[in-house]
Design goal:
Helix content is 28%, strand content 23%. With 333 residues, it is α/β, with parallel strands linked by helices. It has two domains: 14-127 and 296-330, Quinone Oxidoreductase, Chain A, domain 1 (Alpha-Beta Complex); 140-273, NAD(P)-binding Rossmann-like Domain (Rossmann fold, 3-Layer(aba) Sandwich), CATH 3.40.50. It is globular and about 60 Å long. It starts with 13 loop residues before the first strand and ends with a strand.
């Protein structure tokens, strides 16, 4: 967390942003608590935070003049590896991650590659611009294949899961069930459009309960695993119907034991590992959903803090009760 003099641009391809909003991601908790993957991946000193929007205050890029409001793509791709040549920029072999490999947005200013920002035309959207990066995860996870007319299960209703519920509804899913242990977030999941929210059920009884609905006796067409829970990932495959699709987004802290033969091969299951968003295809889709009003960003934001109150914000985010949705830092404007 920093408030200091503006940093200098690294190259003519960079821009300097005055940060307007930044939001906390679950992965930021590992860095803040110096746990899980963070000690292996992050090399201090580093400013973290990768969900960011801001206003350009210095630029040598004609298409991005000073005063332009932008949201940041957190994946900085090289442009010349095999994945980039295939236009899979989000899978770049030389990827640099904002707030992990390079300085991020929990600061007053941020230096960004010009290629990694998206203009924000709407003043109203600017208030929620930092949410576009995480929304893109949910849009990609949900829409990697069509969910229209499908029965969808969302496991984990942190902000990503809450977004996924809205996205599934907006994309035409006909039956949506969510699983979330936090009572606070379970209520949010219902408000986002889930037909049923399963809470306070023991993991050993969860499979039977999820298959007890009339619509899901043969399993779910689509399962969106957004929690990273080592207990829920096996259940995700167990309740998937034959020929169903599983999107894996949540990051488990350790390896997970799965029955590959029974729950994947014999089911003909399709499994997608979801990393970030397709650049810029997913951005186009999510901005259409937001502009049309099918996705509402505001209701997922439950708390706002000034950057200097970061300890209160992180204490709330990592509390056992999880009595929050998305948390925004109001840094500028």
């Amino acid at each position: 967390m920093q408030n200091c003099a503006a940093p200098e641009l690294r190259s003519k391809q960079d821009i300097l942003l005055k940060v307007h909003r930044a939001s906390i991601c679950g992965s930021d908790l590992a860095i803040y608590g110096w746990s899980s993957w963070a000690p292996r991946k992050v090399h201090p000193p580093l400013i973290f935070g990768h969900e960011v929007c801001g206003e350009i205050v210095e630029s040598k890029t004609p298409s991005l003049p000073v005063g332009t409001r932008v949201a940041c793509e957190s994946h900085v791709w090289c442009g010349h590896c095999a994945a980039c040549k295939a236009r899979d920029f989000h899978l770049c072999h030389n990827m640099k991650l904002l707030g992990v490999d390079i300085n991020g947005g929990f600061a007053e200013f941020l230096v960004m590659p010009a290629k990694g920002v998206r203009k924000l035309e709407s003043k109203k959207l600017f208030d929620f611009g930092s949410l576009l990066e995480p929304l893109g995860n949910a849009v990609y996870a949900t829409g990697v294949e069509s969910v229209a007319g499908k029965k969808v299960l969302v496991l984990g209703c942190g902000p990503q899961g809450l977004f996924a519920i809205q996205v599934a509804k907006a994309m035409g899913a006909r039956f949506i069930v969510a699983v979330e242990q936090s009572g606070f977030r379970a209520k949010l999941a219902k408000a986002m459009g889930a037909h049923h929210v399963v809470s306070a059920i023991a993991i050993g009884q969860l499979k039977e309960h999820l298959l007890s609905y009339r619509e899901t006796s043969e399993g779910f067409d689509v399962v969106l695993e957004m929690s990273g829970s080592r207990d829920l990932i096996p259940v995700a495959l167990q309740v998937l119907r034959n020929g169903g699709r599983l999107s894996l987004f949540g990051l488990p802290s350790r390896s997970v034991n799965l029955d590959i033969a029974h729950d994947v091969i014999f089911k003909g299951a399709r499994i997608y590992g979801i990393l970030g968003r397709r650049i810029w295809k997913t951005w186009d889709t999510m901005l259409e959903l937001v502009d049309s009003g099918k996705i509402r960003l505001g209701p997922i934001v439950t708390h706002r803090f000034k950057l200097q109150d970061y300890e209160k914000a992180f204490d709330l985010m990592q509390s056992k009760e999880k009595n929050c949705g998305k948390i925004l830092f109001e840094i500028g404007g």
